[in-house]
Amino acid sequence: VQLQASGGGLVQDGGSLRLSCAASGRSFSSYVLGWFRQAPGEARVFVATITWSGGSTYSGDSVKGRFTISRDKDTVSLQMNSLKPEDTAVYYCAAAPRRSVYGLPVTESEYNYWGQGTQVTVSS
User: Fold this and answer.
1) pLDDT tens digits for 67-109?
2) What would you report as the CA-atom Rg of the chain, rounded to the nearest whole angstrom?
C-alpha cells in the first residue's frame, strides 16, 4: 500500500496551493482519505477528510472556509486558499476504514495508512 503526496511548496501569505495524494496497492472504496499536518515542534493535527464518494467531508476549524478537500476514487486533493504563515507544516495524507455511518474519523489512531508528507511553507 502506498500513499504518494505531492504539491507542497513555498507560497506567500494569502496565496494558494493544491496538494494531491494518490493511494494504491489495495481497494480504498471502503476507506476515507484525509489530511493531517505537523508544524515544527508540534503534534500532528487533523485537517480534513472525505469519503469514497466525496459525498461527506469534514474539516478542522482552523481551515474551514479556506481549504477544500475533494476526491476522485483513490486520489484525494486539498485546495488551500488564503494561506497564512501558521499553515506552515508538513502535510500528510492518510487512509482510514470507515467503521461507522455516523461521523468521520478525525484522530491519528483511526488512520492506518500514511503517506510520506509534503512540506508547505507560507512566508509572511
Assistant:
1) 999 999 899 999 999 999 999 999 999 999 988 778 899 999 9
2) 13
